[in-house]
Amino acid sequence: MEISSMFHSIMALSSPLFSSSSSPSSFPTSSRKRPNIHKFKLQSSTSAATKITTDSIPRTEAGEFQNVLTDYVSPNSSNQFPVSRNDRQSAILQIQESSDLGSALPRLGETLKVQDMNVILRYFGKLSRRQELSQVFDWMQQNQKINVASYSSYVKLMGKSLSSVEALVMYKSIKDRSTKINVSVCNALLSCLVKNGKSESSLKLFTQMKRDGLVPDAVTYSTLLAGCAKVKDGYSKALELVQELMSNGLLMDSVTYGSLLSVCASHKECNEAEKYFQKMKAEGQSPNVYHYSSLLNAYSVDGNYEKAEALIEEMRSAGLVLNKVVYTTLLKVYVKGGFFEKSKELLKELEAFGYAKDEMPFCLLMDGLVKSGLLLEAKSVFDEMMGKHVKTDGYSYSIMISAFCRSGLLEDAKKLASEFEEKYDKYDVVILNAMLSAYCRAGEIENVMSMMKKMDDSAISPDWNTFNILIRYFCKEKLYLLAYRTMQDMHRKGHQPEEGLCSSLIYYLGKTDAHSEAFSVYNMLRYSKRTISKSLHEKILHILIAGRLLKDAYVVVKDNARFISRPAIKRFAVNFMRSGNVNLINDVMKAMHSSGHRIDQVASLGKQRSQVQPEKTRPIAKQCDVLSVSNRRNTNIQNGFIQVSEF
Q: With contact defined as beta carbons under 8 Å apart, do 290 and 282 qualify?
């Protein structure tokens, strides 16, 4: 900001200012060293301040002019000109109403305190004006008008609009250690990660925060517990957090219990949910609607409607009002237990209370009917929902389209998919997958490509199911290389293909002489975090031998010889001795020997080849002679050397 504009900002304020009659001790040390600075004369006025020019301030050495100024106006200086509360409130209001924050913030922000800037931050946040919120926060960071409350408020107010990456970048930019390990700041960041579906990352970051000096509180643990509901092995991780919480001398409050009950329900730990619910009551804490609905959700795992109904009565006795979540969760219990008449009666109650204005209750019932093989009843519920013009996001369509596809009613599936396309211009990955599946099963390549284009145009990322649908379809249409490229995309996106699909694609690629592509698919599966079938190693070995990719075949044999049959290894060895890389023959011989295979015939082939290329293979011929006596002697291979000792 230009220095002159800074002075104009000061002059715009009508608050009492310093005059030349002030005691020298009231000025900064730097001004006392320069007596001429006192020519800078200000008169107190309630209407307008006397105009100040920069000519009255001496310019001594380069940079000193700015240093003198900073002593007066720096937000971190204790000698800043006092600004009245009314003036600060006026500046806050001007910034909030400004259509050009880029100019308003430098012009007015210098006169405000950090807490004033936090007021502006919360103002834009409550109005969900994310762009202005970010702009104000960035200015606060750049001008060091920021504190703990600024960081925590910003993260909370941005909500899901703040990506996990942006949140982590902001956190790493914090220089002050005390701010970085402040529990409010850390809690806000961990909550941001959990809300963005990065629960695993939040647990890892929490460990790092503790190393840096964070002292977690009950809110920290409740936040992390909520994330455990959505991660693998979440229940065991939740127990570890609870144990840590208690060892730190903290008590479980209602929020912590609520998060833990939700974790139990998500991971089908119904008995544990009951145990914690009773423990909570025994400690004198009164469960609220959220606690009851979480326990109801746990009962839905096995459709235990008797316990669910008893819990509803307990809620009524406690004077709690049953809301939409409770009724919908009870419906889920009935559906899971196969009590469809009770489900239909409860759905009518939901409609009477105005809780069935969207499709979710209908979808719960339809999904249960479909999974029980009652397709016609499910279609009847769907038609009833459509007749009542219930708001839909496409989930009901996806249930019915998928059901028709599984039942072989492809024309009905296509008809419903076309109907959705005509009526709605709103898609998500679930409905697109359902429509894609319908067209793939019907073998309509044009519609398949149309769905893929819609995904691109709508910026919808394909999920695991999308890739599986496409790969199976391309295999059915004998477009094996296209299926292979789709699997490559799937792998790059971080999705792990299932072994059955990989095995089928490997087989088809091998049949069409796409040997290197088949080996690539094998490696995708091999390096995934799962145990693969032993037979797959032998299957890829035969494909590699057929494609004369003997070096790759050697890698398969070397790493998996114990899973491969003797005939298959013998076939590999014979082919390698005849046409493999001559420099690897010795390694192949040792690999066969260490796996316990007889190598007499292979050794003779090695000697025959040495006669064709004597200058390169003479050492190999000698090695073959040594190895061929291993059936009569005790042979050990250590550190690449063959040691032979008589019995």
A: no
Long-range CB contacts for residues 312-316, cutoff 8 Å, separation at least 24 = 315/289
Global confidence as pTM: 0.63
Query: How far is Cα 526 from Cα 552, in angstroms, rounded to an integer?
Result: 14
Region 563-577: mean pLDDT is: 82
Residue 627 vs residues 310, 553, 584, 590: alpha-carbon distances, Å: 77, 21, 15, 8
Contacts of 572 (CB under 8 A, 6+ apart): 541, 545, 550, 553, 554, 557
Distance CA 300, CA 310 (A): 14
SS3 of residue 529 by DSSP: coil
- Cα–Cα distance for residue pair 77/97, rounded to 1 Å: 28
The answer to whether residue 637 is domain-embedded is yes
Beta strands in 191-347 (DSSP E): none
Tell me the backbone φ, ψ of residue 182, rounded to 5 degrees: -65, 135
CA–CA separation, 201 and 198 (whole Å): 5
pLDDT of 530 > 80? The answer is no
Selection from 272, 246, 248, 257 nearest residue 222 by Cα: 257
Whether the Cβ atoms of residue 417 and residue 433 lie closer than 8 Å to each other: no
- Say if 288 falls within a structural domain: no
Supply the pLDDT for residue 585.
66
Q: How far apart are CA 436 and CA 463, in angstroms?
A: 13
> How far, in whole angstroms, is CA 111 from its chain's centroid?
41
Say what the alpha-carbon torsion angle 270, 274, 280, 283 is, to the nearest 10 degrees. -140
Q: What angle do CA 609, 614, 620 make, to 5 degrees?
A: 65
Chain centroid to Cα 424, Å, comes to 29
Cα 515 from chain centroid (whole Å): 35
**Rg of the chain, C-alpha, whole Å:** 37
Instruction: Decide which of 285 and 426 is more confident.
Output: 285
| Closest to 116 measured CA to CA, from 98, 141, 91, 137 | 91
Two structure tokens written together for 244? 């840590």
- 3-state SS string over 496-509? CCCHHHHHHHHHHH
Rounded Cα distance between 188 and 403, Å, is 42
Only one residue has tokens 């104000």, namely 136
Whether the per-residue pLDDT at 445 is higher than 50: the answer is yes
Say if 521 falls within a structural domain: no
**Cβ neighbours of residue 1 under 8 Å, at least 6 residues apart?**
106, 110
- Indicate the average pLDDT of the chain: 79
CB distance 565 to 603 below 8 Å: no
Any bridge partners for residue 519, and if so which? none
Answer yes or no: are the C-beta atoms of 261 and 271 closer than 8 Å.
no
Whether 640 is in a domain gets the answer yes
Instruction: Show the domain range for 631.
Output: 565-646
Range of weakest confidence among 200-214, 224-238, 355-369, 569-583: 569-583
**DSSP SS3 for 645:** strand
Band (pLDDT 50/70/90 cuts) for residue 352 is very high
pLDDT of residue 437: 85
* Residue type present at position 109: G
For 613-647, b where at least 16 C-beta lie within 10 A, e where not — what string? eeeebeebbebbebbbebeeeebeeeeeebeeeee
Number of domain units in the chain: 1
Of 74, 133, 128, nearest to 101 (Cα)? Answer: 133
